[in-house]
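Need tokens for this chain, all 401 residues.
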Amino acid sequence: MGLPWGRRFYIATDEEIKTGLTTDIYFERTRMILERYRMSDIRVAMEVTCGKLPRGWPWAILCGVEEALKLLEGYPVDVYGLREGTLFTSNDIKGVRVPVMRVEGSYGRFCLLETPLLGLLCQSTGVATMAARIRKKAGDRTILGFGIRRMHPALAPMIDRASYIGGVDGVSSIIGAEAAGIKPTGTMPHALIIVFGDQVKAWKAFDETLPQDVPRIALVDTFYDEKVEALMAAEALDGRLTGVRLDTPGSRKGDFGEIIREVRWELNLRGYRDVKIIVSGGIDDENIDELVEAGADGFGVGTSISNAPTVDFAMDIVEVEGKPIAKRGKFSGRKDVWRCPECLRIDVEPVGSSRPSCPSCGISMKSILEPLMKDGKIVTDLPQPSEIRSYVLQQLSKVCI
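Here are the structure tokens for all 401 residues:
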């Protein structure tokens, strides 16, 4: 039996999103008013900006651009924007808000799409940014995205794709990995070991059943102390064990860093230096430093990425029928966005201004607000997630956390 409204799950279909059924009602009322007064074809330019980034973040990674273009595709609009994966700041070097996207067209024809457009950008940008922050702090250590169980399952493809773009090495969901263009990654749950009732039997069953390209990473904190189970796993899968996973929750009241050091010592002492230590459970961009310092080789990161704070983008009219106009607190007129290719500082100038030079590096800045759509047709390449991820990593090498 389905839910009262006739569906199994409370999710919108592609078509419902595309036709504006997920919009705020006042946009539908605006459309009706404009239509009645024959104002639907008044042409506007609208910019997507954010006043500040969450938690004092110095930068963010733009994500959701492909979905935004698919939303607008077929509508009579022109779109300019930063490419997906671009590292941006909320304000430029002068304090002007940085437009990450500009939509131009007849307002009455696309006003219903403002709400879903912002939703597509806000949440995925937050997820990609948190993943990038953790990537930056983890250095070259492995990061796996485990967060989909904390969110509505309909969002799994978006979360895992944005996580991968932001810099994680692998994601756990089957459909999310498909969206990211990679194979799903995971270890084993406590449930497997509990059903077997014996750690060693469960680890050996894992080893005997799964293909060889699946890393042998044993979960080692089900029944006994982490150190004890780590040594048991190393002995049971001698020569085949890739790593051990410590999933120590806060309820254990232990010092995670000290547990890592202890396990590493005991493994090394017995000749298992090649066995990696993977940790999971409550890891975020604030506590990962101490785990890196303690010697963790990899991280399974869940809720902090999947439930990352959204970036509060707003969409505002800055021009009507070619004339600059904006509400108070916003800068009117269409703008160009320039960025230094070295230090990534951004300078926002009115459209048509001459190319500025970076005040820090003294080199010419590059225009990064590119044409993405013309009259409802996508006019830019839509790169694969792996290409976007490489672009993100290249930019991360130039900034501090």
